[in-house]
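During the no-cost extension, the postdoctoral fellow (Dr. R.K.) reprocessed legacy sequence entries with the updated structure-token encoder. One reprocessed record is reproduced below for audit purposes.
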Amino acid sequence: MRQVIVTGGTGYLGRPLIRTLCAEGLRVNSVARPQSMVKIPPGCGAIAGDALDSRTYQDQVPAGSTFVHLVGVAHPAPWKGAEFRSIDLVSLEQSVAAAKRASVAHFVFVSVAHPAPVMKAFIEVRMKCEQTIRESGLNATILRPWYILGPGHYWPYVLAPVYKTLEAIPGTRQGAVRLGLVTRSQMVNALAAAIASDTAGIRVLETAEIRALGSKPGGLARAA
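Re-encoded structure tokens follow.
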């Protein structure tokens, strides 16, 4: 079974994803700073390194592995543009550099749904990240959720009736679906399915596809 390397493995998506992958029998290693290694779920290997500097971990990325990049600023907000550029963009560039050096088989990245009327700085950085991946020549899957519901991220549930109304109107349906809500479990299942798939070129999963893939557990078995 192909090895999986994860950056951002101690975060909101990283921890449940690693638990899922390990439970399904994959060999998973997470890049983390020494002080954060205690946050890595049991069963996952630890690679001491700085996600902002690929030189600190690149020699431990196996050739032919799957590289999952989940590093990002917590709780994105319009006023965090400088952080998006210094953390989200830089870490992605470093992950791509490490992945290219190791000739990984598959690169997986969580971007953001667009276009959208808000969060322009965040979207701009994520689009630059996507461009970097496309220019790298790596086989990659890019997932584009808008808002991921989960612990500490429940407030958008109050907008659910509004979304249903907009999705029912032909003129607003496309935008409402593109900027729709997904749950953390849907994202984790969709990521697991993407990791299990062999991808040639660039594959993009929009919100509707994330929901479809993520609504069924067992990503590896489903993708086999």
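The first strand starts at residue 4 and ends at 7. Helices lie at 14-23, 81-102, 120-136, 160-168, 170-178, 184-196, 207-214, 219-223. The remaining legacy entries will be reprocessed before the final report is submitted.
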